[in-house]
Specification:
Layout lengths: L1 E6 L4 E6 L4 H9 L8 E6 L3 H12 L3 E5 L8 E6 L7 E2 L1 H4 L9 H8 L1 E5 L12 H9 L3 E5 L2 E5 L8 E3 L5 H12 L4 E5 L5 H12 L3 E3 L5 E5 L7 E4 L4 H14 L1 E6 L10 H7 L2 E4 L3 E6 L9 E2 L11 H8 L5 E5 L9 H7 L3 E5 L2 E5 L8 E3 L3 H13 L3 E5 L2 H6 L3 H7 L3 E6 L1
Parallel strand pairs: 2-15, 3-14, 6-7, 10-11, 18-19, 22-23
Antiparallel strand pairs: 1-23, 1-24, 3-5, 4-5, 7-9, 8-9, 11-13, 12-13, 15-17, 16-17, 19-21, 20-21
Bound molecules: uridine-diphosphate-N-acetylglucosamine.
The site of uridine-diphosphate-N-acetylglucosamine has 21 residues, from α1, α5 and α6.
Length: 426
């Protein structure tokens, strides 16, 4: 199993090219199921989760044609053709590895009248049920049944437009509803829809395929169903979580990094935070520049929220930064109930963190100490790498497969800007 070795203390300088967003690529890939014509996606990141989704689509009968990018950070091109489907089942083996597999449920039932998808079960960061996905599909007229760990969703006569009011914001449930409603008869209104840029990206792609959608990026999205969708080409938007992670890397290690191929508006809530921490942020025509001199970062409090608030997917990385700040920071996690798995690992590196319910109280220390640590989930793994950049001595991050699910060649991107980091085959 691969591991990553980091020797802390190096300042970072140079350019990091930001990849396409994992959380946009996965629903966009699922959207190919809605049409018998090819969907061409460009700027697709090379990630284990993207490969899992491609494998799932193949199992459903989709022809998958992939051309990888050549340069670091240059995305690949996928041509996905679901001319006819060979099945409507997403097996446990694939869904348990990646919850986003559940995103095939909406498109499958809309296109083929049936979907049988394994229940994802719990995961390292909390219970993460799919009840909102199912309520949305039921509102559109599908019958939902549970059988031996699988959800069977049926609508043999097609879906009907409806009002879907979510009790709270869910990215995945909004995406499933958006895709299913695109082929439903009549109008669907989604209230309390997620406003994440990845939802807008999916909506834009569906519009390019012929869907009629308005209100994207607001909490009220309206979809006028159409009979069929056609071929389209769409470029995946830049990854705001990767952008934020490397911006925090510059803040934690010190130095100056230009993040290219990304956009400042994607991390609107992060920029004031970076400035409050003592980092200079400058928008450039290729992305943004993040610069911090040798002074210790300041402590800042944050609370995770749905977009446009501070993202839960950056909470662990921000905690690594706060672990070396001067003063005490309160970090509140409101989205997932068990997303502090990185805390015991950061503490092994000398961090001073107390957890009280959904709040982590982080008192910065002058210097973290390198240690062997274990990645527990995707974003937690990147926080351990950031901590390693700031730590004295050597840090070994084990179980790197978590990292490979969502960060494209992270160690190579960091090495190119001067970090002392390498992947080892243990
Ligand atoms: C997506 C992202 C993930 C991110 C999360 C929150 C993808 C592939 N993943 O996950 O990286 O951390 O948004 O920004 O895009 N919930 C329910 N019932 C449901 C669905 C969700 O109770 O049917 C709860 C979840 O347990 C969680 C909250 O709603 O507490 C938000 O989850 P949601 O936005 O759905 O997350 P995902 O779409 O799974």
């Amino acid at each position: 199993m691969d591991r990553i070795r980091i020797r802390g203390g190096a300042r970072l300088k140079g350019e990091i090219s930001i990849s396409g967003a994992k959380n946009a690529a996965l629903p966009l890939m699922a959207a190919c199921l809605l049409s018998d014509a090819p969907l061409t996606l460009t700027n697709v990141p090379k990630l284990a989760d993207v490969q899992s989704m491609a494998e799932l689509l193949r199992q459903l009968g989709v022809a998958v044609d992939w051309t990888p990018g050549t340069a670091l950070g240059e995305g690949g091109r996928y041509v996905l053709t679901a001319a006819s489907l060979s099945g409507t089942t997403a097996d446990y083996d694939i869904v348990r590895k990646m919850r986003a597999s559940f995103l095939v449920a909406g498109p499958l039932v809309a296109r083929a009248g049936q979907a049988k998808v394994s229940l994802p079960g719990g995961c390292a960061i909390g219970a993460r049920p799919v009840d909102l996905h199912l309520k949305a599909l039921e509102a559109l007229g599908a019958a939902v049944q549970l059988e031996e760990g699988y959800v069977i969703v049926r609508a043999p006569k097609g879906l009907k437009g409806a009002r879907i009011a979510f009790p709270f914001v869910s990215a995945g449930a909004t995406e499933n509803a958006l895709m299913a409603a695109s082929l439903a008869k009549g109008e669907t209104v989604i209230e309390n829809a997620a406003r994440e840029p990845e939802i807008v990206d999916l909506g834009d792609c569906l519009i390019a395929m012929g869907a009629k959608i308005s209100g994207l990026g607001t909490s009220r999205v309206t979809i006028e169903g159409v009979d069929t969708l056609h071929a389209a080409e769409h470029a995946v938007l830049p990854d705001r979580i990767e952008t934020g992670t490397y911006a925090f890397a510059a803040a934690v290690a010190g130095g100056e990094i230009e993040l290219s191929g990304t956009r400042a508006d994607l991390i609107g809530s992060i920029i004031p935070l970076l400035q409050a921490v003592g980092t200079e942020v400058q928008e450039t025509n290729r992305g943004l520049k993040v610069h911090r001199n040798g002074v210790r970062p300041n402590s800042v409090d944050v609370e995770t929220e749905p977009f446009p608030g501070f993202p839960t997917d950056l909470q662990a990385q921000f905690m690594a930064l706060m672990a070396t700040a001067s003063g005490t920071s309160h970090i509140k996690e409101t989205i997932f109930e068990n997303r502090f798995m990185h805390v015991p690992e950061l503490k092994r590196m000398g961090a001073d963190i107390k957890v009280e319910g959904d709040m982590a109280i982080v008192t910065g220390v002058e210097r973290l100490k390198g240690a062997p640590v274990m990645a527990t989930d995707l974003r937690a793994s990147s926080s351990l790498v950031l901590a390693g950049l700031a730590a004295e001595g050597e840090t070994i991050v084990n179980r790197v497969y978590h990292l490979d699910r969502g960060f494209e060649r992270l160690e190579e991107k960091l090495r190119r800007v001067g970090a002392d980091i390498e992947r080892q085959n243990a």
